[in-house]
Structure formats: C-alpha cells, structure tokens
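Reopening this one. Same input as before:
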Amino acid sequence: MGCSSSKEPLDSRKSDQHPEQQSEQQWKTSEFCSARWTPIEKLFQQPADHETRAKLKAWCKTNSAAKQAKLVDVVDAYDDVIKRRAVFQSAQRCGDSLEAGQSILEANGKAIVEKFLVETGSKYVGSLVGGEWGDAEFVAQLKLTETDAFNTLQTALIRYFQSAVEKMP
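Same output, byte for byte:
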C-alpha cells in the first residue's frame, strides 16, 4: 500500500541526503504512513490548519507519486468546499438575510467550479475524480446555491484520494 511494513520509512535508507534533509523526509513519510491507517475522511475533516493536515499537504507536495496524482489539488478542492459552507453558516449567524447567504454560496460555488471543475481551471480535478465531475455540461448546469452537489463532490474527492494512495508503490 505504499508504506513499508517496518517502522522505518522507505526514504530513511537513502544515503545521498544530508542528515537534516533525511530526517525531515523521514518525518513526513512516517507521519503520513501512520496517518494512512486513519480513514482519509477523518484526516480531511480536521481543520485545514491542523498539524496533521499540514503534514499531509506537505507530503502531497513532496512525494512524487502524490504530485503526479495531483493530490494537493484534491485537498485544496476539498478545503474550498468546506470554506464555502463555513462562510455561508457564518453569514447566517451574523444575521445576514437568506438572500445574502445564497449570493455567498453562489459566489463561492462559482469560484470552486472555475478553479477545480472547468478544464481551463488553475487546479482542474474534474477528470481525476471522474463521473459527472469531468462532464463539462453537468458542471455548467450545477446549481451553485445548493449544497447537495458540493457534498457529493467532497465524497468524490475523498474516494479519489483514497484510491490514488492505495495504488501508490
């Protein structure tokens, strides 16, 4: 599944690294390997500024297989969907009108679609997560004020991430 069965991370056997680089790489690899036994959903549900999430993102940025699978973009997409909901809920607690909340949902939804679900987006993941998310016609018809579609997107992102990690050497 990508992690060695022993407690020693695979990267610790590399001798061409400086000791401090080697220990940093060991830390990242071993931390994520131990976290892999935690359901991915649980990792994703932690706050974006949580230490384990930060380590996960660092791993996604430094591991070559994770970079190739665009896992950091998947994590970013998940975080943006979470932020969308949090901003809407915050607006409702502050006494904003439902219309103001709906316009916030729509604006944030549009930003997510343009960034992650349109092929020309800066962090396009639609084809990665598969299904209707790679279909431009479906994406164009998303109701940006509804939350069900974005909840479904979160599930698709988690499934893709889990699948990509399981396929890693």
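So the earlier flakiness isn't reproducible anymore. For the record, The chain has two domains: 19-69, 71-164.
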